[in-house]
Specification:
Helix content is 38%, strand content 20%. It is α/β, with parallel strands linked by helices and 285 residues long. Bound molecules: adenosine monophosphate (AMP).
């Protein structure tokens, strides 16, 4: 069983002791409701460090008004057991008032790359993400931090923050773990009705369509977007928030892809009240 710590000072002491004993610490930040995607991150972390700390915190500051903060699935005992099974020695699960007490006033704002894609659809989201991740780094004192490619823009934001704020932390990114029909695993998939779940496979199909077009030599992004649009339009319950073909580093929207470039093809689509995101990286050659 993993040791579950809710107290910030206790977690900091445990991390300090581990460091003093020469242990390499990996942190895997999550919002809980752990699935195979999260567990893959924890296993990867265990390969790269002596001690894995999984954090489970549904971070209020990264949810906008009208988003699913209140109904986000919370299952702490199950999460602790799963995290331990995947190799976590500690689960850090603080309360929201402990993380953001009365008078809390400090936020991390990563500029520019937070203004597009998810940042455009969810104003303030990455301010909450960067803030909580830096706070979790301060509490868990990791040498390594493991994140999922599923949240591609989040990875870009954390990478920028680590660099800009001189964090001595190795960032490890794990490829997206998918269900057998291609749907990216997500805690939010639990919100889907049976019909929505069946139709949600269209997202990965649309991304793969675009990949195949690029591999077949298509360079015009409007054609890639048309193809994705057409595929998703075939799904009655899907409502597109955005489709994007962007440079993987700058996240700048592209008109054409060029040889040698790595492009991030990404989307956000609603099924009823559930908003799903997915992406693939394509190396153009
Ligand atoms: P979350 O609990 O959704 O905030 O996710 C916590 C971490 O798990 C983030 O780094 C996510 O990118 C990662 N993650 C979530 N779903 C997947 C997945 N299907 N495959 C790989 N990583 C994932």
């Amino acid at each position: 069983m993993a040791q579950v710590i809710t107290d910030i000072a206790l977690m900091q002491q445990a991390a300090a002791h581990l460091r003093a004993a020469g242990k390499r610490i990996a942190v895997v930040p999550t919002m809980g409701a752990l699935h195979e995607g999260h567990l893959t991150l924890i296993r990867e972390a265990a390969q790269r460090a002596d001690t894995v700390i999984t954090t489970v915190f549904v971070n209020p500051t990264q949810f906008g008004p009208g988003e699913d903060f209140a109904k986000y699935p919370r299952m702490p005992e199950r999460d602790a057991a799963l995290a331990a099974g995947a190799g976590a020695a500690y689960v850090f699960a603080p309360s929201a008032p402990a993380m953001y007490p009365q008078g809390y006033a400090t936020f991390v704002n990563v500029e520019r790359i937070t203004e597009v894609l998810e940042g455009k659809s969810r104003p303030g989201h990455f301010r909450g993400v960067a803030t909580v991740v830096l706070k979790l780094f301060a509490v868990t004192q990791p040498h390594v931090a493991v994140f999922g490619q599923k949240d591609a823009q989040q990875v870009a934001v954390i990478r920028r923050m680590i660099r800009d704020l001189h964090q001595v932390i190795e960032l490890v990114v794990v490829p997206t773990v998918r269900e057998s029909d291609g749907l990216a695993m997500s805690s939010r998939n639990a919100y889907l009705s049976a019909d929505e779940r069946a139709q949600a496979t269209v997202l990965y199909r649309a991304l793969e369509d675009a990949r195949k077009l690029v591999e077949a030599g298509e360079r015009r992004c409007d054609r890639l977007l048309d193809s994705m649009n057409g595929r998703i339009a075939g799904s009655r319950l899907a409502a597109i928030d955005y489709l994007s073909v962007a440079d993987a580093d700058s996240l700048e929207e592209l008109r054409d892809v060029r040889n040698g470039q790595t492009v991030l093809i990404s989307l956000a689509v609603r099924f009823g009240r559930t908003r799903l995101i997915d992406n693939i990286l394509v190396e153009v050659r």
